[in-house]
Specification:
Strand order of the largest sheet of chain A: 1-2-3-4-5
Strand order of the largest sheet of chain B: 1-2-3-4-5
Number of domains of chain B: 1
Radius of gyration of chain B: 14 Å
Oligomer: heterodimer
Number of helices of chain B: 4
Order of helices and strands of chain A: HHHHHHEEHEHEHEHH
Shape of chain A: elongated
Largest sheet of chain B: 5 strands, mixed
Number of strands of chain A: 5
Order of helices and strands of chain B: EEHEHEHEH
CATH topology of chain B: Transcription Regulator spoIIAA
CATH architecture of chain B: 2-Layer Sandwich
CATH class of chain B: Alpha Beta
Strand content of chain A: 5-15%
Structural class of chain A: alpha/beta
Low-confidence stretches of chain A: 1-11
Mean pLDDT of chain A: 82
Distance between the termini of chain B: 41 Å
Largest sheet of chain A: 5 strands, mixed
Largest interface: A-B, 19 and 21 residues
Helix content of chain B: 40-55%
């Protein structure tokens, strides 16, 4: 007997929650203009979204507001998800930060909650129930937008990583049996691995006997990367190729000595030119300027 | 599976054709060390092109072969290490230090020729 009664109460609770939400949505739609303006004012006041103009903020705020209310009304979040992804796509390139996006959604939540307080201030009971209906939905909306934004960010980061990896590192043949591998930028373990693989296959494909690895463009090196470099040198040797490392900057050289990486096995030459000359010597090449060019050079010197 | 050892002029060429057990490796070592004396060879080439894995025992045996053969008065070159194999070996810390390596059989022969010329020039 009692349980049936309880169920009925629960049922009527359910119904009234839906009703309350409907009432809430109605209220939000009626007061759309002023709430939206209030919200835009709060956004400007909080000094977020500085990358966007007031007009843009107001336009964005309008569509966010409508989507927000629609999500409250329907109780489904797919449309909002898609919208927040689109929004992120538009605003991320303009330098909008995660905290700003989360901030404005939370501001909207607060603005709406305030208006609910104002509307129901006479009846605490109803206010309570309205808030019960409103809060979970609002929190979920905030969550959806934030997650959408972060996901979009991560997607962009992944895309860029991909692009960097593709640009990555060419293995170039400069002479018969001589390869150069210019390394530029930051080396992370993944890139280091890919680099080594490319080099080893390059050695095989070009039947290289000497390889010059130029690291002029590498700004910093930690023990991890240094060890990988040593491994690359040793692996190349197993394929029968001699490796010459060039372009160690003074900073890197000092760091390597300080952290105690054993570079004894490595053949190092100051710069790329020296490295190539050393490689040519190893391969038995001798580069001699032809007579004409030599006289031209000396003639040029005399003129200047 | 034993490894055929071919005599070519003053060199011995051992071509490993499939994965070897530890016994096979030791048998190869014994055979090479004996034949170097028997044929008075000046160089030995061990071709590992067919191997897609070189474990620590195999690497150590190859290193031992090279060192023993040096004591017997000849040079050893390991040829044909695959890129993936080389990378895996280095990551395991196996570097075949003090053992000569070359890209393939041709390069190995060229390397030995050069070494012998050097040796003769010094005399």
């Amino acid at each position: 007997m009692k349980s049936i009664l309880e169920r009925e109460v629960a049922l009527s609770d359910d119904v009234s929650t839906a009703e309350l939400l409907r009432e809430l949505v109605e209220h939000l739609r009626q007061h759309r203009t002023e709430l939206r303006e209030e919200w835009a004012r709060r956004i400007t006041e909080a000094k977020v979204l500085t990358a966007m103009t007031d007009a843009e903020i107001f336009a964005e705020a309008t569509s966010v507001y409508d989507n927000y209310v629609a999500a409250l009304a329907t109780g489904t979040f797919e449309a909002l998800q898609t919208y927040s992804r689109n929004l992120s796509e538009r605003i991320i390139p303009r330098g909008v930060e995660t905290h700003e996006v989360v901030g404005i959604v939370l501001l909207l939540r607060d603005v709406l909650a305030r208006s609910l307080f104002a509307k129901y201030q006479t009846d605490f009971q109803v206010l309570n129930r309205i808030l019960d209906a409103y809060e979970p939905a609002a929190n979920r909306i905030a969550n959806t937008v934030a997650v959408g934004f972060v996901q979009e960010r991560e997607r962009i980061i992944r895309q860029q990583q991909e692009a960097i990896r593709e640009l990555s590192t060419p293995v170039l043949q400069v002479r018969e049996r001589l390869l150069i591998l210019p390394i530029i930028g930051v080396i992370d373990p993944q890139r280091a691995r890919q680099l080594t693989e490319q080099l080893l296959h390059g050695i095989r494909a070009n039947r290289a006997r000497v390889v010059v690895i130029d690291i002029t463009g590498v700004a910093a090196m930690d023990s991890h990367v240094a060890n990988h470099l040593v491994q690359t040198v040793e692996a190349s040797r197993l394929l029968g190729a001699t490796v010459i490392v060039t372009g160690l900057s003074p900073e890197i050289a000092q760091t390597l000595v300080k952290i105690g990486v054993d570079l004894g096995k490595m053949n190092t030459v100051g710069d790329l030119q020296g490295g190539i000359e050393e490689a040519e010597r190893l391969l038995g090449y001798k580069v001699v300027p032809t007579q004409e060019v030599q006289s031209q050079i000396s003639g040029f010197r005399e003129e200047s | 599976m034993s490894v055929p050892i071919l005599k070519q002029a003053q060199y011995l060429i051992a071509t490993i054709q499939s994965a070897l057990s530890d016994e096979d490796l030791l048998a190869l070592q014994t055979a090479l060390v004996e034949k170097v004396g028997k044929y008075r060879s000046r160089g030995v080439i061990v071709d590992v092109t067919a191997l897609d894995v070189l474990d620590s025992f195999a690497s150590r045996t190859l290193r031992d072969i090279a060192h023993i053969i040096r004591l017997r008065g000849a040079e050893t070159v390991i040829v044909g290490v695959q890129p993936e194999v080389a990378f895996a070996m280095v990551q395991l810390g196996i570097t075949l230090e003090k053992v000569s390596t070359a890209l393939d059989l041709e390069e190995g022969l060229a390397y030995l020729d050069k070494r012998l010329q050097h040796a003769r020039a010094e005399h």
